[in-house]
Amino acid sequence: MAEVKLHGFWCSPFSYRVIWALKLKGVEYEYIEEDLLNKSELLLKYNPIYKKIPVLVHDGKPIAESLVILEYIEETWPENPLLPKDPYDRAMARFWIQYGVTKCADAFGAFYVASEEEEREKAAKDIVEVLKILEDQALGDKKFFGGDNINLVDISYGPSAYWLPAMGEAVGVKVLEPSTLPKLHAWANNFIEVPAIKENIPDYDKMLAYMRDAREKLGKN
Amino acid sequence: MADEVTLLDFWLSPFGMRVKIALAEKEVKYEYSEQNLMNRKSDLLLKMNPVYKKIPVLVHHGKPVCESLIILQYIDAVWKGKAPLLPSDPYERAQSMFWADFIDRKVHDISKKLWTTKGEELEAAKKDFFECLELLERELGEKPYFGGEALGYVDIALLPFSCGFYTYETIGDFSIEARFPKIRAWVDRCLKKESVAKSLAEPEKVHEFILETRKGLGFD
């Protein structure tokens, strides 16, 4: 029988993207927790380029980079499709996933490391601007990016649904508010209620403590 | 019946060249629309790519596809009959996507530093560039192409950056052929293909453009 293993980290949203996809596809896998301060020989062997989690190992063959892993999972286990079949719709789904990598990642990164109040306010404002486009053009009036059910676009933005609010608490400025981003706010609440997500998410308080600790180490609090 | 394909592009863009190679490989007829990015962006470009306002944009039956790697995947899915760009095996596909993503993350920004910096910064950029090419050369190994026996997704993702090699070598005072003979041989092998030769910008023209730009930035 085919063997699937996932090297992950309990607090990493990228790790969870892969877990969610595997759960939605009903794929059995073995989870291996990596200590990021003491990475295993196996991880370094499987991902020599970036030395990061998550890494999916299927029949001994490693795949790195969460978004690459998501596409691999989609192709290897076609049941419960998580991307549209039509090439154009598929291209649009990938476009919005990529938007998260380019615009969102930069905005979130700046927010996470913001120290001065002015910096925090500006970073928060930038995030709202970037997310407004996502809300208007990608989500619209749909419940999820995937329509009635979640798909890879929702999964790729999972970190925004759960990690971003915690980041907001850690930084001291909330960003995903019903007043500024009503549809995305509703999406976030709906997303974390989906059973596959709800049952596979880190403890909020533990995660918040971890983020606060990490920011302190960076000298940001 | 014409498939109604238009490509919004800028002659110097490596991302646009990727799309040109792919369309040529697939023998797709299309209308080429040069966008002069030095002036005000055209209404067409702003309408077709409102989010990033960038080229390349592939317009198919009036609908725009943006982001070069996404465009390549789209082209591969729509024009399936000829010259597959991505492998059919899911694991091999994932490896191709990994390397194309690596190229996107590293090669463009690092190679830009090779002509926009000097002194210590330039030396640091050279070091990063060499590390990049070393990894890529190792990935290429003894294969004629990154795609194996035929030109593929990773080849197309990387090739356009070779237009700048002459410029980087001249400014940085190094030789890619000497340091990375397999990469050099791979570029020359790919240039023998018409789809590549007619899609890549001429290194001399790229060099001229970059030197002009450097003057404007205050170099030399």
UniProtKB/TrEMBL annotation, chain A:
What is an example of a Pfam family matching this protein? GST_C
What are its E.C. numbers? 1.20.4.2, 1.8.5.1, 2.5.1.18
**Record keywords:** Oxidoreductase, Transferase
CDD domains linked: GST_C_Tau (cd03185), GST_N_Tau (cd03058)
Name all GST C-terminal domain ranges.
86-217
Q: Which residues form the GST N-terminal domain?
A: 2-81
Instruction: Enumerate the GO terms in the molecular function aspect.
Output: glutathione dehydrogenase (ascorbate) activity; glutathione transferase activity; methylarsonate reductase activity
Out of the domains of life, which is the source? Eukaryota
Catalytic reaction annotation: L-dehydroascorbate + 2 glutathione = glutathione disulfide + L-ascorbate; methylarsonate + 2 glutathione + H(+) = methylarsonous acid + glutathione disulfide + H2O; RX + glutathione = an S-substituted glutathione + a halide anion + H(+)
Give the UniProt entry's GO cellular component terms: cytoplasm
The UniProt entry, under Gene3D superfamilies, shows: 1.20.1050.10, Glutaredoxin (3.40.30.10)
User: Per the UniProt entry, what are the Gene Ontology biological process annotations, in alphabetical order?
Assistant: glutathione metabolic process
Q: Which PANTHER family match?
A: GLUTATHIONE S-TRANSFERASE U10 (PTHR11260:SF775), GLUTATHIONE S-TRANSFERASE, GST, SUPERFAMILY, GST DOMAIN CONTAINING (PTHR11260)
Q: Which family does it belong to?
A: Belongs to the GST superfamily.
Q: What is this protein called?
A: Glutathione-dependent dehydroascorbate reductase
Organism in which the protein naturally occurs: Salix purpurea (Purple osier willow)
From TrEMBL, chain B:
Its primary localisation, in coarse terms, equals cytoplasm
Q: Any idea which UniProt keywords this protein has?
A: Cytoplasm, Transferase
The biological processes this protein is annotated with in GO are: glutathione metabolic process
* Pfam families from the UniProt entry: GST_C_2, GST_N
Where in the cell does this protein reside? Cytoplasm, Cytosol
Q: What is its EC number?
A: 2.5.1.18
Q: In what residue span(s) does the GST N-terminal domain sit? A: 3-83
Q: Which residues form the GST C-terminal domain?
A: 89-209
Q: Name one GO molecular function term.
A: glutathione transferase activity
Show the InterPro entries listed in the entry: Glutathione-S-Trfase_C-like, Glutathione-S-Trfase_C_sf, Glutathione_S-Trfase, Glutathione_S-Trfase_N, GST_C_Tau, Omega/Tau-like, Thioredoxin-like_sf
- Listed GO cellular component terms? cytosol
Q: Which reaction does it catalyse?
A: RX + glutathione = an S-substituted glutathione + a halide anion + H(+)
Q: What class of enzyme is it?
A: transferase
Question: Which PANTHER family does the entry link to?
Answer: GLUTATHIONE S-TRANSFERASE U19, GLUTATHIONE S-TRANSFERASE, GST, SUPERFAMILY, GST DOMAIN CONTAINING
Family as reported in the entry's similarity comment: Belongs to the GST superfamily.
Q: Please describe what this protein does.
A: Is involved in the conjugation of reduced glutathione to a wide number of exogenous and endogenous hydrophobic electrophiles.
Name of the protein this chain belongs to: Glutathione S-transferase
Taxonomic source organism: Salix purpurea (Purple osier willow)
Q: What is the lineage of its organism?
A: Eukaryota, Viridiplantae, Streptophyta, Embryophyta, Tracheophyta
